[in-house]
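Sat 14:20. Reprocessing the chain from the morning session after the first attempt stalled halfway. Input below, unchanged.
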Amino acid sequence: MALFGELGTGKTSLVRGIAEGLLAEPAAVSSPTFALIHEYRGRLRLIHTDLYRLTAAQLEDTGLDDFLDGHTVTAIEWADRWGAGLPPDRLEIHLSHRPAATRRAILSASGPSAFRLLAALRTNLSKRRPTRASRQTRVQLPHSRRAAF
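Finished this time. Tokens:
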């Protein structure tokens, strides 16, 4: 997953939620700004990385490519720093501030696995009973393979 958004838009909070869904310890999740890569164990291995302080040349030395094995959930904060090095099959999540302490997330699929994941997410959300959160959730999956939440 390629995570995009300004400081404070909830990238690390989103990864905490992903960790919880993977049955890893969400309280253990912290921003890997200085450690660069954090690993969490759950149903699947979760790798959380933050590229904020890295240059394109430094990215080659991180070993991040080793985690893109198809069996590991990889959450990449500040993914725009990696540019063309991002995996071609990825889910992009663009987070932005909204009024009253809320956030907006726009999801885009790039590649067949990410497209299937986004379609499954859309189906799953459409089957849930209405709650305040789901009433405020808008899911779109037009030809551009995007969804807004």
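DSSP finds four helices and seven strands in the chain.
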